[in-house]
Amino acid sequence: MSLSLHPPPSGSSSSRPSSTLATSFRDRNIALPNFATLKTKELRSGHRQSVRGLGWSIDGRKLATCGADRSIRVWVPERSVDHRASTELRGHAESVDQLVWHPLQPEVLASASADRTVRVWDARVQPAAVSVVSTPGANINIAYHPTGNYVAVGDKTDTVSVVDTRQNRIVHTVCTRRSAPAGGEAYSATTVLGSHDEINELAFSPDGSLLLLSSGSGAVHIHTTSTYQRIHSHPAHTANVFCLEYDPLSRFVATASSDAMLSLWHATEWHSLKMVTSLAFPARAIGFSFDGELLAAAGEDAFISINATNPALALGADDSDQLHRLPLGAGTMINTLAWHPSKYVLAYAGDEAPKDAGVVRVFNL
Length: 365
Description:
- It is built from one helix and 29 strands.
- By secondary structure, the chain is mainly β.
- It folds into two domains: 51-173 and 187-193, 7 Propeller (Methylamine Dehydrogenase, Chain H), CATH 2.130.10.10; 197-329, 7 Propeller (Methylamine Dehydrogenase, Chain H), CATH 2.130.10.
- The two termini are 37 Å apart.
């Protein structure tokens, strides 16, 4: 089943839930904040260039950000938004494009950089990384296995490297090209796929048994983590799939494509649950709230769209699952966003006007 959702009619408020949505949340004892009344706080002067990635620690106390200025910064936003109260982590030689916190240890995070390294950091230890692992290409995305024993990192050559963080070495690579890595790129195990496909995002399943790769062909490629062989390719979109994320309760997988569509899929059966059409431009970042009830999405639109995920809502043509449009500054393009792990608090950042370069914003802090 696929539900096509429509934007609110002209003149209606996009900052308040519809009566259908409000009733649905009340019936399930979910108390949403009044988004229209909430404020946004700014974390300034932490980065000198655009912020590429951010994320909350598993306990929600810390927010880490990384960017084109080669640095990582760890904030404690509820204590202070002053950059002098944050901690800077340096060591990467080029842009740091993404980071991810350890799923079990609230002080440990891993970063992926264009300098062809993955670094694992302990926020309590200054200033050097705990470990550094070289990779085949300039890295653009990273994901932790739910055990915390591995990270998967994707690079610009469309190679995915699986790093054992206990041994600090690559234990497997998945190559979406016609031949295995050559020369010094030989690793203990390599899965070579028969044809090239652009890899944009990756995610481990909550039980750790699967690795999902979103692709330029519009498919989500599904690999088993026992051998990293591909077991299925799901035709999620007809265009490039930029974003991919599991909801925290393991019910849904969300995908976002260059056709400006967001799709919600059943996490195990992979049938379509919902299609969201609240954006005019492709989403570059998506994120589920801690309870999986909300999905935020943003890119080149002049707002962040916050949508309800419940696929059981029977919405008509004059209704929408969009709960709020969080306005952005002129010319802003969102690169990254993340919900707090236990609150309806949303951090986001991207490419902005020069006077606001490197600013991180937190909604409802």
